[in-house]
């Protein structure tokens, strides 16, 4: 029997008290407790979004009712909780966060004992338990008498990240960084990381608030204050997180926003060239990322492996095949020597190490890369007719390479494009990247013309 999906691309998310209600949270917590079983050890953490306080309390209560031993990490970044779960031998972690979603959203993420988000097969079992109300409720004698508070989650996480880089080299560089943690849990970790590495630190949006000063999504349109602060302070770097600090997006000293897959190219090159880590010889990323990383790393014999969109998919592909790194185009970077998940602090530490090795500004390192121009569109259309779009795209762009892992990606020497349905919203995403701005616009127009042919002239784009 099939059931309505609860889990999206990354956990269960919804508007607090509308989609994600106390009743939903309780039933999901009971399902998690039932799946992992009485006596299992589960670490619970949260961000400071609206609703996180009551959702955390409800989740803890549901887990206790199912006989779980609950440990409370308090307010922590998601990768800090994941690192602690993996390295301290917990059976599971539950993170209360909606990551980059707008402030009115809340979320619940399930982390397995290896520190990586639950795979789809586990999510399906949790959904079955949830919908069938097959909850395990233990007797009063089996209910844990207390919740154990854990206080060293962030300390342990930062120590692990710092131990993997040349901290003395970074300290000798005398860098200045403006950090923007979006008024959320990154404010508890990133300034500490920077100061411990001898970095002059300026924080904006650094207080904790469920009403953030900017949107939790670190996109160019949301980072105007950071860009201005970096320029005004004469900083070497700007670093912005999403709500739960598992992503870091960078701004150069001259105020340029660096797309996540472009910064990932630099970090991968640093890992391979400066750190000498070339085995296993591959990098894993989603089809939404730029082909630039393959072009840059091919001379080192590094293979580029494409996956479906979703950080857990990338993580588990890395674990199965082996890789020196993995990433997403949204600023999520994965360094498996630390952990196989998106990790905002680790990617920031690696970027600082890169700057200390190169003794050059980030802007100069960017200018050394092949120039690319990118455009993105969101099309509000019925996803059911996408196969017709894909067929016409193959005809229109015949002769180039196609990847159909998640939507349809076309790759040529001068450009690439991706057309894929969103996993979280009722729309289709279109990505185009080319070696010239004119070519990017031409490819985009050709794609939009095909949508008009399939759907008619009424295609709303944003």
Apparent shape: globular
CATH superfamily of the largest domain: Alpha-D-Glucose-1,6-Bisphosphate, subunit A, domain 3
Query: What is the CATH topology assignment of the largest domain?
Result: Alpha-D-Glucose-1,6-Bisphosphate, Chain A, domain 3
Number of strands: 21
Major β-sheet annotation: 6 strands, mixed
Through-space gap between termini: 37 Å
Write down the CATH class of the largest domain: Alpha Beta
Strand order of the largest sheet: 1-5-4-2-3-6
**Tally of separate domains:** 3
Number of helices: 15
Uncertain residue segments: none
What amount of the residues lies in strands? 15-25%
Radius of gyration: 22 Å
CATH architecture of the largest domain: 3-Layer(aba) Sandwich
The residue-averaged pLDDT reads 95
Descriptive overview:
The chain starts with 11 loop residues before the first strand and ends with a strand. The chain is 37% helix and 21% strand. By secondary structure, it is an alpha/beta fold. Strands 1-5-4-2-3-6 form a six-stranded mixed beta sheet, sandwiched between helices. A six-stranded antiparallel beta sheet has the order 17-18-19-20-16-21, with helices on one face. A five-stranded mixed beta sheet has the order 8-7-9-10-11, sandwiched between helices.
